[in-house]
Amino acid sequence: MRFSSKFRGGEKEIEDLFTATFTDSEGPEEGALIGNLVRKLLTETAPDDIHVFLASVGEDLVGAAVFTRLTYSRDSRVVFLLSPMAVANQWQGKGVGQRLLKHALDSLCAEGVDVAITYGDPAFYGKVGFETLTESMAKPPLPLSQPEGWIGQSLTEGPLAALEGLSTCVAALNHSSFW
Predict the structure, then answer these.
(1) Beta-sheet pairing, 115-119 with 79-87
(2) Fewer CB in a 10 Å sphere around the end CB: N or C, the chain?
């Protein structure tokens, strides 16, 4: 398996991976919604506000994780939000997602990111160190429909201390349908 963070020129392939994966697991409406989100994230987010991590086997893209900046109004720490992530259906259950996330989190740490947050399945993301967050620890940008899925981790040597202030996500994620 090969990891990369070079996504320019491969936007359509990445969008197609997300559309297919979410269509298969959640239905065509969700597949279209997430595919459109990914297209907007990849094409409309400022370069300093996005990190994309890809997993490939041979010439096939088998996984992708998109991290975008999450800013807290009274906190100087660098925070990135993982949303969304996909592993091609035929590669699920084979450790691709965990290996991709470990690579992504190690890369973000090396680049000086202090905190990673996501909104997803605590059982899956807990395998790579994510822990439940309360809204007093890290205020989400919009109301959460499933607060138990708000999880995060420190990428520094210290424990995760509460993030101060209100949070702001990138424009493409700033819609209630994603929260």
Answers:
(1) parallel
(2) N
Q: Which amino acid is at 30?
A: E
Sheet holding 50-57, edge to edge: 2-4, 50-57, 60-69, 79-87, 115-119, 150-154, 131-132
Is residue 129 within 8 Å of 105, Cβ to Cβ? yes
Mean pLDDT on 124-147: 95
Span 156-170, average pLDDT = 96
For position 8, what pLDDT does the model report?
87
Q: What are phi and psi of 176, to 5 degrees?
A: -60, -25
Count other Cβ atoms within 10 Å, centred on residue 60: 12
Torsion of CA 117, 122, 125, 130, to 10 degrees: 50
Is residue 84 predicted with pLDDT exceeding 90? yes
Residue 140: asked if its preceding bond is cis (omega within 30°), the reply is no
Q: What tokens does 174 get?
A: 């700033």
pTM: 0.95
N-to-C CA span, the chain? 32
